Amino acid sequence: MKREYPDHPIVGVLGIVRREGRVLVVQRAKPPSAGRWGFPGGVQELGETVFEAARRELAEETSVDVAPLHSLPVLDIIRPDEAGRIRSHWLLVPVVCDWVSGDGELSDEVDALRWLAPAELGASGLDFLPDLERLCVLAFGAARG
Fold it and tell me: What is the rounded distance in angstroms from the CA atom of residue 128 to the CA atom of residue 38?
């Protein structure tokens, strides 16, 4: 599957893990978002549901086991090049998960990780990927509702 100049959008999942009022965020180790902070996740595989993909990606990237609950609004991340050709197009499905076990471990995909309360995100000084704070609010709002 070509990630640059693909023939079609690539479906990815984001695992939004809730644990005792905190959320898991990771510092991405690989391009295109290396060094930035976001939710763990990756590409959905053929024959795999988004819940299965979220659970697998979280285990692979962080060694955290989760119970996927529901998805949030899908994000289209479309990046054209200077000539206007589509360099990348990701369709990201955020999956809200409740933590089951594991404190989190680093991997070749993750340089650092933290468990932060939603109120701590803005003051953390971390370079978050777009939509992280909004998705966090939705994930925790759903827990209250």
Answer: 6
